[in-house]
Structures are given as structure tokens and as C-alpha cells.
Amino acid sequence: xxxxxxxxxxxxxxxxxxxxxxxxxxxxxxxxxxxxxxxxxxxxxxxxxxxxxxxxxxxxxxxxxxxxxxxxxxxxxxxxxxxxxxxxxxxxxxxxxxxxxxxxxxxxxxxxxxxxxxxxxxxxxxxxxxxxxxxxxxxxxxxxxxxxxxxxxxxxxxxxxxxxxxxxxxxxxxxxxxxxxxxxxxxxxxxxxxxxxxxxxxxxxxxxxxxxxxxxxxxxxxxxxxxxxxxxxxxxxxxxxxxxxxxxxxxxxxxxxxxxxxxxxxxxxxxxxxxxxxxxxxxxxxxxxxxxxxxxxxxxxxxxxxxxxxxxxxxxxxxxxxxxxxxxxxxxxxxxxxxxxxxxxxxxxxxxxxxxxxxxxxxxxxxxxxxxxxx
Length: 375
Ligand code: SF4
Ligand code: SF4
Description:
The strands form 3 sheets. The protein has a 5-stranded parallel β-sheet, with helices on both faces. A two-stranded antiparallel sheet has the order 4-8. A two-stranded antiparallel sheet has the order 5-6. The chain has 16 helices and 9 strands. By secondary structure, it is an alpha/beta fold.
């Protein structure tokens, strides 16, 4: 084992034990056995630290801010000690020619070995003039930097697939990094903002094993994006029992019922938000945990694309058919009793469909009823 004692006091007050515990946690996040925690810790303290060059395009800076707002351990300290962050426009003190020269020097000294990380989308319309740094279009800057990179990581939804700058009419022709870099894989860590621990785990995996972790078909690390939000959500028992909040502040919302009918996109969004949480303040600190529907920020075609209160497409599950809805007004939708009658007349399958429809709302129930009648 490396000399981890060197780390005592160096990482925002982390002791050797805390550092090992932290690395074991990273191993668990990566889906590895606890024994790999030691390997990751050794790799993290071994010199030389990998150089990271971080470029920012059409970004709100939320990705970097998210990285800086974690405290157990203090991520900015850990990441600055684990890697060598040689260029980041938000964090560095240099500017102008000095900063640009430093970036060029860092690229030259570490050609073929550095990690390139980007946040923000890339404007492509009108020759890319909508985002320029040091007299170059951002598109040219990422193409230049990617040539010498050992690995390329797009951090955040904007960099992964265009994010909010690409919504609607997309006035700047904003695209994700994978539309620009075609000659090497672009690993994607989407989110708005992305969870900083997913980024750190990705980097530590690269540092410890010299290769990238397993990726999904959208180039996202499977350890972080392998499961639907809906599969790990603490409100899932309410979904399964047919208990839904129908509007913000109603009884169901105050009771912590499922937010599906308020437009929660958890059933079609892959991310580990329920398990990892945000801001280091404990379990339940993520949008759904605090009462707001997931809006699908990690999922191209969902976040910033579907409207906030639009119902999610159910990828793997449907609401159950064995419970009545909790908030169907008299004379609206279809009651459980009515559904039972339908089931008796037209068969269990049609009845089950009617109950599902009653739960999915008045309009759907009407449609189901009329289609049943038509049959
Ligand atoms: S992904 Fe979200 S947090 Fe990151 S730059 Fe885009 S808008 Fe900001
Ligand atoms: S629909 Fe949303 S709130 Fe309901 S269980 Fe799924 S992820 Fe959780």
C-alpha cells in the first residue's frame, strides 16, 4: 500500500481512515468489491497525478459549482490533490494570454495523456461565433484539445447532448460534444447539474485502472446510469399502491405520495440520484425526495424537451391494477366498482385496463370507456 499517511491533514482534514473509507465508498459506487477501495486509494496518492484540462462552452457554470459544493470530503480539495487540474476558466486565477499560454503548455507537456473535460454545449450555427474564447470558436478549441487527450468526458447535459441551449428553436445550433468529436469516445456524465460523485468516481476509476468503466449505449458510465430513477425511488411503494399526489400541496403531496401524475420523469430517466443524493446532507436530498418531480435532466429527449407536467412514458412498469385511485372525483374517471362491473361484463383484461385508465386520469378513462363501448 502507498504511503497514505502523507494524506493525513492534506485533504480538508481527512484522516487516513476517512480517506480509505471514502475510497471504499467510491468502489461501492462503481459496483466493485470493498477490496478495490485500497487500490483506488493507492492510485489516488501515487504520482504523477493525471492532468485535466477543463473547457467550458455554453454553460451556466452549474456543473463546476456543483463540483465545488460538496463537503464530505471537500471535493475541490480532493480533486485538486488527486488530479492536476491545469486549466479551468472558472477556477483559475490567470486570465487572457497567460491562461491561454498555460493551456497550450499543459497540452504540450502531457500530449496523449491528459483528460479533457468539458461543460456546456457547442454552438455550431454561423460558424460557431456564439461562443469564442481567446479568439477561437469554442468548437475549434475542443477539436484542438481533444487531439491530444487520452480520454474525453462531457460533464453535464449541455455538453452531453446540447441541454437547455439546444431546446426549442435552438438559435445557436447548440450540440453535445459527441457531435463534434468523432475520432475518439466521448464519455458522458449528464445531469443538470451532474452529480459530482459520479464524475469523481469516473476519474478515480480511470486513475486506478487506467481505463474507463463500462458504458451504456449513450456512453454513460453504467455504475451511475444503469438503472431507472423509478427503480430506486423511495416513493415507489406509493406508485405500486396507486397513491399519487394530484397537485402541489394537496393531501397526497404532503403525505409523500408518488409524483407520477405531476409529471415525474423517473420512469423514463436513468440515473442514480435516489441512491447518491445531492449536497452531502443525507438520504432523501434529491428533487423527488424534496417533493418535486424528476424532470429527466440526464435523458436526451426528456429533460428540456418534454414539458414539465407531461406524463412520463413507462419503460418498465405500469401502475398496478389492483388498487383504486385515491383522488377520483365523483362522476369523474372510473370508480373501482364501475371497473369491477366492466370486468364482469367484458372480462378481466378490459377491467384491468379500465382501472389503470381511471388512475391515469379522467381523459384517459373516457378514452378507455369509449373504446370499450365501441368494442
Ligand atoms: S448541464 Fe445544467 S448545470 Fe451544466 S452547464 Fe448545462 S445548464 Fe448548467
Ligand atoms: S414516478 Fe417519480 S415519484 Fe413516483 S415512484 Fe417513480 S420516480 Fe418516484
